[in-house]
Design goal:
This protein has about 900 residues and is of the alpha+beta class. About 40% of the residues lie in helices and about 25% in strands. It contains 27 helices and 34 strands.
Length: about 900
């Protein structure tokens, strides 16, 4: 039975039992900054389980793509070395939100495995929670297995919390779980396996399915309270189930992975099964190709931090294993393309973004191969030194510097070192990088103010923001902070932080800078320098007291700098239009990676795998300006997060959104979740101009743009420059391009003519034949010439010409360039054994106050004493004779350094 049939039959089975079939969510968890990646089927239902969200169904099922590479669910190091561990896998799961509970969950699971999948009931056992630390044993699950399913008691194992109790975190929903295990090896009898102690102590059992029963809410301090609404969350790996149903001992033999291994095998010319080491490498590459393709399809590109760096680690491990297989040219993009061919029908995003996946992977592989080649040389040298010194561990500073300076991953260093029998202290290396390269923990002062902000947020809660509709508001002073400490009163001349209960000032967030302005109370005037949101929804005003004094509890009026706010509005709304236009022109893989919206400009960082062309940027700019001219009214509305996302609103990954979100519509098509301030109509932006576009990191580009008056000023400045150039060229502005091309053509022709004349001057072509000046020194022909053209390039060209005409012999040329003397010595190939050009020029150079050297056949020197150049050239015969007479081929330092 192939994997596609198993996946379909699972979803159809639960659909027949009134479960809503829910599509897999993205690998990047929506609205959950606590996770880098979706690591379980329940992640997309997390808010439903905790009661913060509702769905139109009370039971659901899914086949969810998951990635486990960090935190407690981290299988990265074991991937490829065992027959069942993976980074990317599909989790089959069924869920109940206050509907059915333990008995139906167990019954449905058992029926599916035995009746639908045909797994032998007589070779399966179950585990349940035994109870510990004040938490009762799960007698209901035990009774269900014994009385409803009819499982003999010797095949029901009671285990502790490490195996059979699940919690969402330190606090929150939790509960016991029950697992189903299969004795897959037919050579092992049930009697023998049961006698050995069961799944907790015997590795011959294979876990198939985990059924979690959420029935408690863990309070701070560990107290468990019964949930008002219980839930069921189950998970079963499709890869493992497919292997068991088909009698495979390894998930890598299933149709989900074996075709990828075969792709690697063909590309490397290495048979799978031929050797344990190469088999591991092929399994790693196959697994990591799946993880890579799915991540990029979901908008994650390899970068330096966060989930993006996790992807980079995965890709680099695969590329390194390719090198172990002898794959010296880029190959990984081909394996990732095979992932799309294999799973593209089930996950169409793999095919839709196939080109993007290929380009991103190839670019990363090309870049990393350079890093790998450089790093491996340094690493191998360090390994040899450690072995020679009988040191069991690589030095921490070396490991850290190899990462910080050369980009060589620390975990990869550890892996290679372990293969050589050496240890690496990863934690110490990361600390070394942090301490040495400025990524250490925050300073004491910053920690102190952060503590104050947290205290204020807990005490006063959210600050009421009224700035969407007003630029002036009155509020009560809740807190005053000076030098990181709470104070009761502040006075003139002090720089402080001010917290009020309501404000019109926008706190820096979502890329938009904070407002500035003024504040006044009955006894004080303040300048508002900035506004931030350091802790949740707490808004803090950074201010300077201009006069008087201000005390906690007083009323104060805050006024936003309206002109500055309007400039920010223009740039923020234009940022939304730009984002939409980029996705239209470059593709839907474009995702915002960062932004800065200030009154002066907008900066937008976005994911894209290659440099944008001038034509693409022009098209993006044109689309934004077209929206501006349409002048569609902007709209904002409050909605639930789920409704907004279903309606197509763009959300920033990593941002935490509340129950209600603010949806902003700019222009005719842009819809994003945003808390910032915006124009009333798209036409208010006035004009949009892209100033620059550049690479920020591999796979990330940055655009700088202007709007409104700033964009107009840029156009006017360009126009002034164009008209100024037109006047200089004595041409109309629209003729500047043609006239410039013509002048450049003339300039290049003149440069060629000048170069030709210089060459003639240097070789004597404009007058008498220089070969008439040839002298013979100890049987060697010598030509010494002072030229009018003394730049190094012309001298070399002239030297080549004269050496060719001279035949066997030595050519010495001297000239003046930029106020310095230059000397060139060239020796014909057949004389290199007798005359070394570098030694001869080394003897001449001190005569002009300089130094020089070079190859046996060609050498150059220079010095500041141009007045002594003729003297130096006059001594060439003498120095050459000394060079020829010396058994070491040395002209000697004495004669060259003495002044006649």
């Amino acid at each position: 039975m192939d994997s596609r049939t198993i996946r379909t039959r699972f979803l159809e089975f639960f659909a027949r039992h009134q479960h809503a079939v829910v599509t897999s969510s993205s690998l990047v968890p929506a609205n959950d900054p606590t996770l880098y990646f979706t690591n379980a089927g329940m992640v997309q239902f997390k808010d439903v389980f905790v009661g913060e969200q509702s769905r139109p169904y009370s039971r659901a099922c899914s086949s969810q793509k998951c990635l486990r590479v960090s935190g407690k669910h981290n299988d990265l190091e074991t991937v490829g070395r065992t027959p069942k561990h993976h980074t990317l896998f599909e989790m089959l799961g069924n869920f109940s939100f206050g509907d059915y509970f333990k008995e139906e969950a167990i019954t449905l699971a058992w029926r599916f495995l035995t009746a639908e999948m045909g797994l032998p009931a007589e070779r399966m056992v179950a585990t349940v929670f035994c109870g510990e630390e004040g938490v009762p044993a799960d007698e209901q699950a035990y009774a269900t297995w014994r009385d409803v399913i009819g499982l003999p008691v010797e095949r029901i194992f009671r285990l502790g919390s490490n195996d059979n109790f699940w919690a969402m975190g330190e606090t929150g929903p939790c509960g016991p779980c029950s697992e189903i295990h299969l004795l897959a090896d037919p050579a092992v009898s049930m009697r023998e396996a049961l006698a050995a102690g069961g799944p907790a102590v015997d590795g011959r059992w294979v876990e198939i399915w985990n059924l979690v029963f959420m029935q408690f809410n863990r309070q701070p301090g560990g107290v468990l309270q019964p949930l008002a609404r219980t839930g069921v969350d189950t998970g079963m790996g499709l890869e493992r189930l497919t292997a068991l149903v088909n009698g495979f001992s390894s998930t890598y033999d299933t149709d989900l992975l074996r075709p990828l291994i075969d792709t690697v095998s063909r590309r490397a010319g290495v048979a799978y099964g031929a050797a344990a080491a190469t088999d591991v490498s092929m399994r790693v590459i196959a697994d990591h190709a799946r993880a890579t393709a799915f991540c990029i399809a979901d908008g994650v590109f390899p970068e330096k931090g966060g989930r993006e760096y996790v992807l980079r680690r995965i890709m680099r491990r695969a590329i390194r294993h390719g090198k172990l297989l002898g794959l010296e040219q880029p190959f990984f993009h081909e394996v990732c393309a095979a992932v799309g061919e294999l799973l593209g029908e089930v996950y169409p995003e793999l095919r839709e973004r196939g080109e993007v996946i290929a380009k991103v992977v190839r670019a990363e592989e090309t870049a990393f191969r350079r890093t790998l080649d450089r790093g491996l040389v340094q690493l191998q040298h360090a390994i040899e030194e450690a072995r020679a010194a009988a040191t069991p561990q690589l030095p921490v500073p070396f490991v850290g510097d190899l990462y910080a300076s050369a980009g060589f991953p620390i975990d990869l260093t550890r892996l290679i070192a372990e293969e050589a029998g050496l240890d690496v202290d990863e934690e110490a290396a990361h600390r070394w990088v942090a301490e040495t390269h400025g990524a250490a923990a925050s300073k004491v002062g910053e920690q102190a103010i952060a503590t104050v902000h947290k205290q204020l947020a807990e005490t006063h809660g959210a600050t009421e923001f009224v700035g969407y509709s007003a630029e002036q508001a009155e509020g009560t002073v809740l807190a005053l902070v000076r030098d990181g400490a709470l104070v009761e009163q502040v006075s003139a001349g002090e720089t402080i932080e001010l917290v009020v209960d309501r404000t019109p000032c926008y706190g820096r967030a979502g890329g938009q800078v904070g407002d500035s302005g003024a504040a006044q109370s009955a006894h004080a005037r303040l300048e508002l320098l900035d506004t931030t949101k350091p802790e949740g929804t707490l808004i803090v005003h950074h201010a300077r007291v201009l006069s008087g004094s201000l005390s906690r509890g007083e009323r104060v009026t805050l006024v936003v700098d309206g002109a500055r706010r309007q400039a920010i509005r223009l740039n923020h709304s234009a940022t939304h239009l730009l984002h939409h236009a980029l996705r239209e022109v470059l593709g839907t893989h474009v995702a915002q990676k960062g932004s800065e919206v200030s009154p002066a400009h907008l900066r937008f960082d976005f994911s894209h795998f290659e440099a944008t062309t001038a034509a693409q940027l022009r098209e993006v700019e044109a689309r934004v300006n077209a929206e501006i001219r349409r002048n569609v009214a902007s709209r904002t509305e409050l909605s639930s997060y789920e409704q907004a996302r279903q309606a197509g609103a763009m959300a920033l990954f990593g941002e935490k959104y509340g129950d209600q979100v603010r949806v902003v519509h700019i222009g005719s098509a842009s819809t994003e979740l945003c808390g910032g301030t915006h124009v009333e109509r798209a036409g208010d932006v006035g004009l949009f101009r892209i100033v620059s576009e550049e690479a920020l990191a591999l796979g990330v580009r940055r655009i700088l743009a202007l709007t409104g008056e700033a964009a107009l000023a840029l156009d006017q400045r360009f126009e002034d420059q164009l008209r100024g150039v037109a006047r200089l060229l004595k041409a109309a502005p629209d003729e500047v391009g043609e006239r410039t091309e013509r002048l450049l053509g003339q300039l290049k022709a003149q440069e060629r003519e000048i170069a030709s004349l210089k060459h003639q001057l240097a070789t004597g072509g404009a007058g008498s034949d220089p070969l008439q000046r040839v002298r013979t020194v100890s049987g060697v022909r010598l030509l010494v010439l002072r030229t009018e053209a003394g730049d190094p390039k012309t001298l070399r060209e002239a030297g080549d010409t004269l050496r060719g005409r001279l035949g066997e012999g030595v050519v010495v040329l001297g000239g003046e360039h930029e106020g310095k003397a230059t000397i060139l010595v060239m020796v014909s190939p057949d004389l290199k054994a007798r005359v070394h050009a570098g030694k001869l020029v080394g003897a001449l150079a001190p005569l002009v106050g300089g130094r020089g050297g070079g190859r046996p056949d060609m050498a150059q020197a220079g010095g500041p004493e141009v007045a002594r150049l003729d003297e130096a050239l006059a001594r060439c015969e003498e120095l050459l004779a000394a060079l020829l007479a010396s058994p070491e081929g040395d002209a000697g330092t004495t004669s060259a350094s003495q002044t006649p």
